[in-house]
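Cross-posting from the modeling subforum.

Setting up a comparison between two proteins and wanted a second pair of eyes on the formatting. Protein 1 (sequence, then structure tokens):
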Amino acid sequence: MSIIIILSSIVIPLMMAYVQGRWVHFQYAFHVASIVAALIFGNIAAVSVYQIIRDHVVFMTTIHAVLLNPFFLVSGAYLGMFLIYQLLLLTMKANGESGYRSP
């Protein structure tokens, strides 16, 4: 499973960069998806912290229960991939690659 996670963190951002260079409208879709993922990720984290503070139950199991939420995991994973994708685009821009399209 570790190999799959590591390989996907390399391959998926590369595929995203290729797709957005080939079809411009995908760049917009990736940005919109990142905004939605950030909202989901942040709101789940905020609500979880609020519930812990409200209920006065600061236990390790209670705090880490947020990691069992599949929406939290998927949105966090997308944000990680999107960050690597953006760093890849910045690197391509710095090196003068022609496939980069600025937003």
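Protein 2 (same layout):
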Amino acid sequence: MPPEYTEEGRWFAENLLPHEAMLRAWLHSRYPSGVDVDDVIQEAYMKVLKARKMEPVNAPKAFLFATARNLALNVVRLAFSWQEIDMKKSGL
């Protein structure tokens, strides 16, 4: 997380951090235990902050949730792909 005394830190504290508890609960309710929610949230924060450097983020909560959802889906897809590969290797 960026230091709060920077403009980026202030924006983060005002626009993203207040939604963390709701995002965490939502991710736990939607995705299996194979998804590391802490990692997804941390990466979502990084992606939102990086995107904000390119252009303004007009709906930070929506963008944060969509980003976290996409990251969690990527984790699930990757796990499914590895499971499929393991099944093929074992002849199932």
